[in-house]
């Protein structure tokens, strides 16, 4: 067992330090060290858990729910941290939508992280094959009216340019 596996078991599987310590013969002190060293992994798992927990129990999420929280995290971790449509990088979104200094604001505080998006929203199914991570702008723009192909062809390049220009302007000011 390593740090990442410990954090996955603890945060997606709900295993206690004691259960993991007993099962793998690892001192609790080592587990505490891994916890303290694993902030980046913990944040990724936390985000995955938020996406999973916000949809669990909904019929359209049943394919992911059948896989379970751990496998959903594995799917999430394997996704590039760029919008699946326009390609904007998540680190840029974090600065653009920063609550204190970002030039872009949303009423519900969304935008700083990539969101779970259905490629074919007409199917209403959240599954590994039908989902990707998308920025707030693309996720809200692409709708039941606009197909994935149409969004990629007509809108995603313009959204990417808009967000990149905003990001460059932000860096020129700072």
Labels describing this entry:
2 strands, 174 residues, Herpes Virus-1, 2 domains, 56% helix, mainly alpha, two-stranded antiparallel sheet
Describe the structure.
The longest helix is centred in the C-terminal third of the chain and has 26 residues, at 148-173. This protein has two domains: 1-58; 79-174, Herpes Virus-1 (2-Layer Sandwich), CATH 3.30.40.220. The chain is mostly helical and 174 residues long. The protein contains nine helices and two strands, in the order H-H-H-H-H-H-H-E-E-H-H. A two-stranded antiparallel ribbon has the order 1-2. The termini are far apart. The chain is globular, with a radius of gyration of 19 Å.
Short description:
With 174 residues, this protein is mostly helical.
Topology, pairings included?
Layout: H1 3-12, H2 17-24, H3 28-37, H4 39-53, H5 62-67, H6 69-78, H7 90-96, E1 115-118, E2 131-134, H8 136-141, H9 148-173
Antiparallel strand pairs: 1-2
Helix pairs in contact: 1-3, 1-4, 4-6, 7-9
Number of strands: 2
Question: Whole-Å distance between the termini?
Answer: 43 Å
Number of helices: 9
* Shape field: globular
> Which architecture of the largest domain would the CATH scheme give at its second level?
2-Layer Sandwich
Helix/strand order, N-terminal first = HHHHHHHEEHH
**Largest sheet data:** 2 strands, antiparallel
Helix content: 55-70%
Overall mean pLDDT: 94
CATH class call of the largest domain:
Alpha Beta
Strand content: under 5%
User: How many structural domains can be distinguished in the coordinates?
Assistant: 2
- Which structural class is indicated by helix and strand composition? mainly alpha
Output the strand order for the largest sheet: 1-2
Roughly how many Å is the radius of gyration?
A: 19 Å
Low-confidence stretches: none
What fold name goes in the CATH topology slot of the largest domain? Herpes Virus-1
């Amino acid at each position: 067992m390593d740090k990442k596996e410990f954090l996955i078991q603890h945060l997606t599987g709900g295993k206690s330090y004691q259960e993991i310590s007993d099962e793998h013969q690892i001192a609790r002190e080592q587990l505490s060290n891994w916890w303290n060293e694993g902030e980046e992994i913990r944040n990724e798992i936390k985000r995955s858990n938020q996406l999973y927990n916000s949809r669990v129990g909904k019929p359209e999420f049943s394919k992911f729910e059948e896989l379970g929280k751990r496998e959903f995290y594995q799917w999430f971790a394997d996704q590039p941290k760029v919008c699946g449509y326009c390609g904007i990088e998540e680190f840029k979104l974090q600065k653009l939508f920063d609550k204190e200094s970002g030039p872009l604001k949303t009423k519900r505080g969304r935008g700083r992280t990539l969101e779970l998006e259905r490629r074919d929203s007409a199917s209403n199914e959240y599954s590994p094959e039908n989902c990707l991570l998308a920025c707030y702008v693309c996720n809200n723009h692409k709708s039941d009216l606009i197909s994935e192909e149409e969004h990629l062809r007509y809108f995603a390049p313009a959204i990417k340019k808009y967000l990149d220009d905003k990001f460059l302007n932000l860096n020129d000011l700072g």
